[in-house]
Amino acid sequence: SEAGTMISDGSIPQAEGVDLTGVKGFATIDGVSLVNVEGTGMVGVPGTASAIFATMRDAGVNVIMISQASSEHSICFAVKAADSVRAVDALRARFQEAIAAGRISCVAALDDCCVLAAVGSAMASRRGVAATMFAALAQANINVRAIAQGCSEYNITALIDARESVRALRAAAKLRDEYHLDIRLEARGEPLDEERFAAHLSDNFIPNVVALDCTAAEGPSERYLEWMRRGIHIITPNKKMNSGSLERYRALKRHQRSSFIHYLYEGTVGAGLPVIATLQHLVQSGDRVQRIEGIFSGTLSYIFNTFGTDDRPFSEVVKEAKAAGYTEPDPRDDLAGTDVARKVTILGREAGLPLELDDVAVESLVPAPLRSLPTAADFLARLPEHDAEMDAALQAARAAGECLRFVGVVDVAGREGRVELRRYPTSHPFAQLSGSDNIIAFTTQRYAAQPMIIRGPGAGAEVTAGGVFSDLLRLAAYLGAPSQASMPVRLAFRGAPLNLAPKAAPHRPRAVRARRVAPRAEATQVGSTYANALIEAAQAENSLEDVHSDVDALAGLLRENKDIAEFLSNPTIRVEAKKELLKRVGGEVGFKDYTLNFLNLILDRNRMDSLDDIVEAFETEYCKLTDTQLATVRSAVKLEQEQQFLIAKKLQELTGSKNIKLKPVVDESLIGGFIVEYGSSQMDHSVRGQLDQITSGMKSAAEKL
């Protein structure tokens, strides 16, 4: 009978006696050095490789693996560590003339390496073997120094750091069972040594390790970044990291965006409610968040859902909530509003605001005389003394057909966060709560008329555990993919990724100085988003000053040439035509390539109408980063450089700023002299100002007569 059809997962028919099972195992060779020979004089020169390996033969050095790029600019190969010095000395002697002439720029050895090999049969005939192997190494944070694969298809070889050899073996084992999820739980009761705990996880050589921090302590959160750098994923409902130091928080988020290590924290707001995920999806999909408002405390939700339903005073409702287990052991911890402020800070940062916890204005419900009492019992005993204050607020709300609710507010447009006791109509969704439920309303560009509402239990062991486990399942789905924290829009910016995820600008605390007032109204959220992305990319390339010069030139160009500004913002003109104009103008002005790339991105995303806001936001954040005070100098005639220098020096003394940036403006109406405007302060040394003072004084004197 005729032979049937062989069905297999390979693309090449299986011949009789040929095993196409792919990878059979893995092996390592320790004690290896990588020798690199590099230079432009090697490109296209026949016999270079022959000379290199003939030298190795004559020196008695065995070559373990060879790797050469198609550019022929370098050849690297592995030798036993004991032979590395002899190999380098022999090559330098052999190519002494070429090195002196600059044709070969480098002959060096990298020690403490290890060769990792995947061994099998017909691996080149099976799709994805190399991809899976190197993806597994990347997930395990293992850097590959060199790669080689022979045409025999019997092995794929990679050279890595020696200290990562065992971990690499474990990671590469994913080739054998790549579709199986191995979750290992280990429970042991002992005092926590955070350093030893991290070492235990990172040195166990399990490809995917996650730490679940279900504490409310500060200590573990301070180590998240260190743990992530060791390749440990983090899942936590602990609010301390996301509401703590903004600088530390942003450092962690930057690492998350640039690595395969994930940081998930759905449980920090709303326990198991999908609050964080919903906000991230809104932002990443391009919606513009305007306001987030919610009842974030299950304790205070219960108290104000109960207070007023009968004749019991406020103090009795608080005591009942404590007895039912809704409050902390000391109810002041809930009534002070600090926990709600942390949640407001977390959501504000997710929405793009540079909030510190101290920036959130909190209306505490703990009467001032009771805040310093030593015990919770003392507090509860004296709380009835202040029932009249809360009863008056309740009666005022009732008279207006309203109810009391303790809420947290993220005002994105106003760039602030607040925690306060507010009144709502009885028809409002916040008035319809019962028990200890949370409710959160998202007002966005899409959900402006009818905010998006999330409601449900926002506290408790079971729902919090559900939120943590949800993050664990999400992590399992993410493994192998770049971190989901970043926006899908990324642009190559001189080798650095340009991330357009809305986020806060770096915060640099500064001392309050006399007459120093916040700058004028902040730019729009879109302007801040793009400006912060440009600043972050410029910092990554140490090009902040170059980019600032380009942005400064662009602002001047748009200010002085309205035709160009109108052309770029005209929706009827093709994007290609606008890009061509930018290229021509940029060439004349001297824009850097990366600045033009950024402007082209703005055109592609139809954000040219926000260019003024982007420029303004960039200038504001640049000044914060560089401790620069902006000042406008209006003078009757153009000031000389020496005069400008003296004004800038005086401003440094007044403001304490490291740098002063003057914007000179000629205003002939001043008659003579000048006016300096910085922040909301002004120094008027103009003739017109003096005349105005004289006139005002004469009017005052006349009125007294």
UniProtKB/TrEMBL annotation:
InterPro entries named in the record: ACT-like_dom_sf (IPR045865), ACT_Aspartokinase (IPR054352), ACT_dom (IPR002912), Asp/hSer_DH_NAD-bd (IPR005106), ATP_synth_OSCP/delta_N_sf (IPR026015), ATPase_OSCP/d_CS (IPR020781), ATPase_OSCP/dsu (IPR000711), Bifunc_Aspkin/hSer_DH (IPR011147)
Catalyzed reactions: L-homoserine + NADP(+) = L-aspartate 4-semialdehyde + NADPH + H(+)
GO biological process: homoserine biosynthetic process; lysine biosynthetic process via diaminopimelate; methionine biosynthetic process; threonine biosynthetic process
Keyword flag Transferase: yes
GO cellular component terms given for this protein: membrane
Cofactor(s) the record lists: a metal cation
SUPFAM superfamilies per the UniProt record, alphabetical: ACT-like, Glyceraldehyde-3-phosphate dehydrogenase-like, C-terminal domain, N-terminal domain of the delta subunit of the F1F0-ATP synthase, NAD(P)-binding Rossmann-fold domains
Subcellular locations according to the entry: Membrane
Pathway: Amino-acid biosynthesis; L-threonine biosynthesis; L-threonine from L-aspartate: step 3/5; Amino-acid biosynthesis; L-methionine biosynthesis via de novo pathway; L-homoserine from L-aspartate: step 3/3
Coiled-coil region list: none
Listed EC numbers: 1.1.1.3
Any one GO molecular function term: NADP binding
Main location: membrane
HAMAP family: ATP_synth_delta_bact (MF_01416)
Family: Belongs to the ATPase delta chain family. Belongs to the homoserine dehydrogenase family.
PANTHER family for the chain: HOMOSERINE DEHYDROGENASE, PTHR43070
Protein name according to UniProt: Homoserine dehydrogenase
Species annotation: Auxenochlorella protothecoides (Green microalga)
Taxonomic lineage: Eukaryota, Viridiplantae, Chlorophyta, core chlorophytes, Trebouxiophyceae
